[in-house]
Design a protein that fits this description.
The complex is a heterodimer of chains A (about 80) and B (about 200).
Chain A: H1 3-14, H2 20-32, H3 34-53, H4 61-73
Helix pairs in contact in A: 1-2, 1-3, 2-3
Chain B: H1 6-20, H2 24-35, H3 38-54, H4 65-85, H5 107-111, H6 121-130, H7 133-144, H8 149-156, H9 160-184
Helix pairs in contact in B: 2-3, 3-4, 4-8, 6-9, 7-9, 8-9
Bound molecules: zinc ion (ZN).
Zinc ion binds next to helix 1 and helix 3 of chain A.
């Protein structure tokens, strides 16, 4: 694998989505290629920055009310006897 | 599954709420990122829940409900975009394919990886919104929601290979944007900054 391929695989590596021979090949390359190591490190930091900085706001209270109301009104179009 | 007697209705409703309501905050966050305003985001989430409820009978207990309802959110959003665009001119859906140009390596960031520590939540949101929607979505799924690639492929209805290349481009773009923000805040030891 060349450096371009390694960098393409970097995301899968840091996400734990590589296994077996593919993972070994990337790890072997990283042992002797400092630039790809830097690349992987920066990909990981980018991901971790996103992951750690995002704060999800509490949804407005009316949203759950809206949803419940929609569910009340939007039950499956049952032709059955319904009061 | 049109015909369901009343007591089953109630049970179904309860089972649905138990599965679905805990995901509201995540779905709402994603909807905000996709819709760009709170009202549309609320509509999107509500529509998602309604659709999910209607097809709840097709969800098999024990399988991944979270991925299932996320897929409904994505499909609902795609529908909304299509309807709104009423034609081929859907800006949000454009770029479903890949960005052809190879990104350059942002060498300064590679040398100053700690610079990203300067980025705050608003920087991340701003960068997210600067991404084309397909990249924004894959980044949300992988980096915010921490879905496995397999589930992302199912949610987006695309092959694993596409998930990987899209995520690769999204992260590269994200890295450039965050690096840019960090640098503007004076981090990262830009040589030109010296005056
Ligand atoms: Zn290399």
């Amino acid at each position: 694998m060349n450096c371009v391929e390694i960098r393409r695989a970097a995301d899968a590596l840091i996400d734990g989505e590589l296994s077996g021979a593919g993972k070994l090949r990337v790890e072997e390359h990283l042992k002797y290629c400092a630039q790809c190591r830097q690349w992987v490190d920066s990909a990981r930091r980018t991901r971790d920055t996103v992951r750690s900085r995002v704060v999800k706001p509490e949804p407005p209270g009316r949203l759950e009310t809206r949803i419940r109301r929609a569910l009340d009104a939007g039950r499956p179009p049952a032709q059955g006897p319904r009061g | 599954m049109p015909e369901s007697p009343q007591p089953q209705d109630t049970r179904r409703r309860r089972a649905f709420e138990k599965e679905a309501l805990p995901h509201m905050q995540d779905l709402y966050f994603a909807a905000l990122r996709l819709s760009r305003n709170a009202k549309d985001a609320e509509d999107l989430v509500q529509e998602t829940y309604l659709k999910a409820f209607r097809s709840f009978g097709r969800w098999r207990a024990g399988t991944n409900f979270r991925a299932w309802i996320w897929r409904i959110l994505v499909n609902t959003w795609v529908d909304v975009c299509r309807k709104r665009a009423r034609g081929p001119k859907s800006a949000d859906l454009e770029g479903q394919g890949m960005e052809p140009e190879a990104r350059q390596e942002a060498p300064s960031l590679l040398e100053n990886p700690g610079a990203l520590d300067a980025c705050v939540g608003d920087d991340v949101l701003r960068a997210l919104h600067a991404l084309p929607a397909p990249q924004r979505l894959v980044l949300l799924l992988a980096d915010v929601e921490e879905f496995r690639y397999r589930d992302i492929a199912r949610i987006l209805g695309i092959p694993m290979g596409t998930v990987m290349s899209r995520l690769h481009h999204a992260r590269q773009k994200m890295r450039e944007l965050l690096w840019d923000y960090a640098r503007r805040q004076g981090y990262g030891g830009e040589k030109k900054e010296a005056r």
